[in-house]
């Protein structure tokens, strides 16, 4: 995306950047001379004005956190509760959505109020991907009911995507990214299984309520990504800044499928 592009660019007018032009710079041009047939390479350093503009646009923060189990998705809590303040995050960022205290996985944070509002709004149509360890093994009928959207407290939830995960995939991925996680209730005579559930809405405790509605309560819940964005480079409690490409991916890709 071009800096200054109000539709596709990662930096917006509200951040103080001029949008009266597209700031396009060709660092290198290389082609073959049509007459001499010799290669021609032209290099141009980034102009100082462009460099200053980019620095100006980076004052906003876009972070990705792998939230551990038993941590609130907020910076304050009751005495003895663990919060985001315990994870050495910048003080001027806010969560983009929430994960409940018992849930683990990826949480976005930012100080860009416009971007936060967009990501959280239904219009953005952002898919949130969860892995849920549930009690029992759901059959095809249960999966169908889950995808159709169970009725929760008298209101039908939106359709979602759901399927069973293989033990090999889960063991490898969870062991690498969440080596120590939530304690679960184990019953000798009842097996457990893992589901991948993809939501396009975010009601309170939605995944837990949906799996309970089909008779398979959630024992452990991990958010593993957003749409095509499935990071795997952060251990629980660690965070990093999003790259410009990741910011753009989250900001401007409307997912229809």
Nutshell version of this structure?
Helix content is 21%, strand content 24%. The chain has helices at 48-57, 113-120, 140-148, 167-177, 206-213, 244-252, and strands at 28-32, 39-43, 62-67, 94-96, 104-110, 128-135, 151-152, 155-156, 161-164, 192-199, 218-226, 239-241.
Can you describe this structure?
With 257 residues, the chain is of the alpha+beta class. It has 6 helices and 12 strands. The chain has helices at 48-57, 113-120, 140-148, 167-177, 206-213, 244-252, and strands at residues 28-32, 39-43, 62-67, 94-96, 104-110, 128-135, 151-152, 155-156, 161-164, 192-199, 218-226, 239-241. The strands form 3 sheets. Strands 3, 4, 5, 6, 9, 10, 11 and 12 form an 8-stranded mixed beta sheet that branches. Strands 1-2 form a two-stranded antiparallel ribbon. Strand 1 and strand 2 form a beta hairpin. The protein is elongated and about 80 Å long. The model has no long low-confidence stretch (mean pLDDT 85).
């Amino acid at each position: 995306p071009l800096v200054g592009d109000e539709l596709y660019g990662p930096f917006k007018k509200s951040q103080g950047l001029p949008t009266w032009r597209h700031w396009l710079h060709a660092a290198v041009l290389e082609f073959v001379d049509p007459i001499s047939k010799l290669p021609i390479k032209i290099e141009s350093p980034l102009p100082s004005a462009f460099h200053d503009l980019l620095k100006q646009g980076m004052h906003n923060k876009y972070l990705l956190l792998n939230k551990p189990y038993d941590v609130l998705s907020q910076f304050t809590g009751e005495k003895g509760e663990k919060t985001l303040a315990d994870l050495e995050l910048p003080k001027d960022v806010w969560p983009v959505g929430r994960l409940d205290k018992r849930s683990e996985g990826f949480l976005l944070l930012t100080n860009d109020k416009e971007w936060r509002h967009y990501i959280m709004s239904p219009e953005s149509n952002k898919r949130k991907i969860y892995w849920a360890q549930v009690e029992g093994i759901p059959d095809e009928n249960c999966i169908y009911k889950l995808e159709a959207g169970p009725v929760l407290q008298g209101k039908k939830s939106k359709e979602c995507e759901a399927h069973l995960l293989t033990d090999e995939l889960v063991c490898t991925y969870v062991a690498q990214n969440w080596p120590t996680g939530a304690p679960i209730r184990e019953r000798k005579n009842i097996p457990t299984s893992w589901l991948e559930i993809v939501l396009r809405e975010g009601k309170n405790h939605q995944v837990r309520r949906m799996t309970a509605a089909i008779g398979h309560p959630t024992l452990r819940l991990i958010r593993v990504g957003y749409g095509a964005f499935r990071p795997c480079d952060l251990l629980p409690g660690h965070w990093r800044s999003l790259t410009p490409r990741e910011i753009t991916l989250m900001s401007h890709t409307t997912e229809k499928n």
